[in-house]
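Hey, can you fold this one?
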Amino acid sequence: MDALVTTQWLADELGAADLRIVDATYVDGASGRDPAAEYRAGHIPGAVFLNLAQLRDTSADLPNTLPDAKTIADRLGILGIASGDRIVLYDDAPWHTSARAWFLLRMFGARNVAILDGGIARWRAEGRETVAGDTAPRAAAFDVQPDLRKVRGLAQMQANLDTSPEQIVDARSAARFTGEEADPRAGVAPGHIPGSSNLPYGKMFDADGLWTRGDALKAAFADAGIDLTKPIVTTCGSGITAAVVAFGAHLLGTEAALYDGSWSEWGANPATPKETGK
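Sure. Predicted structure:
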């Protein structure tokens, strides 16, 4: 299975014994939306609801840091997902949160994970079937095998400033990156990590909502001054859209790391250096 699958591919594979379809929609509570209720109102046949909002370290002060292995194993087991299944993720979120789920599941041992190109919006636009209610899967055993080599913490990011082993790529908007726009979180400074490059996550998509591919995707990275042959670590506001850029790099054959605390951690820490401007 490719890392990015089409709606036609998924329609042809519906009902396959090893296929698990997962709604990975996550939105900010301030939006007034309820992703779980939206899932129950209509989802792709056979899909389960991941509840990405709960797959995080709820004891941390930061908004979206990785959960522990037990949390992952328990949730995926309840949803009937085993680590060897073919897992297809989709979402209906402005931040393309299926990419965060893709990063998360792979970090904890899922071996065959894909994103549905265009998400459920594309599925619906093509007139394909959706069903209401909850899917009731059989419980499964997800064999958690954490591999956190592609996750970066604060100390590792600080070391980057001294040794520069990795290119730091910020997925936030240009206005957030330069500091022209204030951070929406109280107590978080404006600006960016010194020496980082800005590649807004929206650059990963075409006007029709599909993922940018091939030369156009390569050009997005090149225009941001990013060398795909050298190590990359992605960052954003809270670790969500950083995964979008990481997935874009994956489509081009580059495995990027992700700074889990992102600007929520760096920008709130009075000891970390910050830059503004381009």
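The chain has two domains: 4-146, 149-266. Let me know if you want another pass with a different chain boundary.
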